[in-house]
Amino acid sequence: MADSMGKLDKAWKEILAQYPIEENTRQGGVYEIQANEIKAFREPRLMTKFDTSESVANPLKELGLNVLPVSRHSYVLGKFNLYEKFPDVTKLKPTPITLPDYETLRLENITSESNAINALLATHTLENFLNEEEQGLLETFNGRMGTGDFSFDVDLLDGTTKKTINVSKAQLEIDGGFESQQSVCIMEAKNIRHDDFNVRQLYFPYRKYLAIVQKPIRLVFSQYTNLTYYLYEYEFTEPTSFSSIKLRNKQAYTFEDCQISEKDIVDVWKNTPVITDDNQDKQVDKKIPFIQADRLDRVISLAECLSSAEDNTLTTEQLTEHMGLVTRQAAYYPAAGEYLGLFQRSRNATSLTNTARKILNMHYRERQLAYTRLILQHQIFHDLFGIVVNSGVFPDKAYVEKEMLRLNVCNEGSTVHRRATSVLAWLSWIFALVDDEI
């Protein structure tokens, strides 16, 4: 996807040069562009699908511009505030759930968004989250459809200005639509955790069904990864305001026994020998870069995605689309998986290793400890883990950078600072596994 995402940025740069978009949006205006005008440079769907703020094309990001579809054939660009941050769930204790014994729905097969929704229904977790009666929700609609016609206000990034947008028969896609005796539920589902999401993913379906149903509409965003659901319920306090989104509830649910004690992770540390110091000068056959990926959960999500792919392999383009990131950022995660021995990488593809396959067949608790073991096989992590255990505090970033340079895991400069952030994030991930109530 490096070439493909390069094409994305290149195409938007050329569009911005050809059309007076920057001029018309500089003072808070909007610019409408036709799909066929975009298609002259690249496929419109690929040019406008920005489900997270991280995925926005760089030329647009540099100008503070975002994109909204307003019909099947046109889009508007402006300095719209389209993205909502997910709340912090690091301290959220997951509720255990059990998947019924179905031959066609197994834990190891929950690798697609549709299967994640099926398991959510089979365990009655969605009803529990929404305080609906068990078996009270029936899936009644999903897929691609038209929006109908409506207008709404959206805040601009300056926080003081609003713009009115008119939508007429744009296309939307709903991952899951449900109805009970009390309400209608619309769900957006992802099998990866992101920091934020495009509010359009909930707002456009909400406005469509607001014109159709009389029952209250409940909006749920589901993130499923590493055998755990993170569910968020949102509402729009003003139906005609895109920017009135508000979080109502959040909860986590996980399959199987997920209790891990501090003794468990300390035992892994004590029983895991260091197999490499990551000294870059010692890497002869193939240099595997030191990590520059803060979110270990995204590495795990990528492994789960690969497990359901044909031959357990994804092209770089498929991988980047799954990650929902720009190319450079998306490349950090397969590299981090390769560092741990989970992935094999070639120039244009990433595949699962046998190590990853074995781990993905483990139960939740053993799986987390296996990931921990892979991390602690590296000298820098083994040493820093010991410091945390013995002192009770995390070392500061300056100390981590010093140790990284001592071990020669990367070159001095700006990258050592960024990579030190990743080291501390991975250490935090390990210690966050511990159940404080044990």
From TrEMBL:
<dbReference type="InterPro" id="IPR055650">
    <property type="entry name" value="DUF7226"/>
</dbReference>
<dbReference type="Pfam" id="PF22518">
    <property type="entry name" value="DUF6997"/>
</dbReference>
<dbReference type="InterPro" id="IPR054266">
    <property type="entry name" value="DUF6997"/>
</dbReference>
<feature type="domain" description="DUF6997">
    <location>
        <begin position="78"/>
        <end position="254"/>
    </location>
</feature>
<dbReference type="Pfam" id="PF23871">
    <property type="entry name" value="DUF7226"/>
</dbReference>
<dbReference type="Pfam" id="PF22515">
    <property type="entry name" value="DUF6996"/>
</dbReference>
<protein>
    <recommendedName>
        <fullName>Type II restriction endonuclease</fullName>
    </recommendedName>
</protein>
<dbReference type="InterPro" id="IPR054265">
    <property type="entry name" value="DUF6996"/>
</dbReference>
<feature type="domain" description="DUF6996">
    <location>
        <begin position="9"/>
        <end position="77"/>
    </location>
</feature>
<feature type="domain" description="DUF7226">
    <location>
        <begin position="298"/>
        <end position="434"/>
    </location>
</feature>
